[in-house]
Amino acid sequence: MAISRVIEGLPRRAGIAVAIGLVHYCCLTGWGNFPANSEDQGFPATEMLTATFIPEAPRVPDAVPLPVITLQRPTVDTSILTNVVFTNPDAGKVPGVVSPMSAPHPMAPDNRSRSIHARRAGLTPGEVLTVILGVQVLADGSVGDVTVAITSGNAAADELAMAYARSLKWVPGSVNRQATDMRIRYVIVLDG
Q1: For residue 184, what are the β-bridge partners?
Q2: How many angstroms separate the Cα of 99 from the Cα of each of 104, 121, 122, 141?
Q3: Among 34, 38, 94, 177, which one has the highest count of C-beta atoms within 10 angstroms of its own C-beta?
Q4: Which tens digit of pLDDT belongs to each residue from 71-116?
Q5: Phi, psi (rounded to 5 degrees) for 118
Q6: H or E segment to which residue 42 belongs
Q7: How many separate helices (H) and strands (E) can be counted in the chain?
Q8: CATH for the 101-191 domain, from 3.80.10, 3.90.25, 3.30.1150, 1.20.58
Q9: What are the residue boundaries of the structural domains of the chain, listed by start?
Q10: How far apart are CA 51 and CA 54, in angstroms?
Q11: Per residue in 41-56, pLDDT tens?
Q12: pTM assigned to the model
């Protein structure tokens, strides 16, 4: 349907194109010496406008070679580096103390060691005992005094729970980001 419209409009468009071409031809060949206004102020019919196409010259690389550039090695005075001192802001602090105020806690509880202590206490498989200890953790992370706060009812299990608490590596408690001695209650569950 769109093609039929183009074909129908083709003769009219072709006629318009031919008419525009004839007007241009007449103007360029001097057949139409029309004045600009009622007085004759136009160009004479003998003068023609000529346009010439000038092709661009092919690009040729530079004929002059680039100069060779040699860089000199810079000199560095290393004597001024001896005055630089690097300091560690965390020097002297105990690892694991990261907050302004924190309670002591084990660095990494050893569950395997806890089960060994449970077997030594004579617990049968499936038997579970809970001991609550009072543990004093010193500022350097070592364990001070360990006491039984709430017994499990088994004296051997209580003793082995205290031995387990002493065997752990502790992160000390802190006040104002400074490690300090603290006493906490620590729950140990021994399962056979």
Answers
A1: 135
A2: 12, 37, 40, 16
A3: 94
A4: 888 888 777 666 656 666 655 565 666 667 888 888 877 666 777 7
A5: -65, -40
A6: none
A7: 3, 8
A8: 3.30.1150
A9: 1-31, 101-191
A10: 10
A11: 555 555 566 777 777 7
A12: 0.48
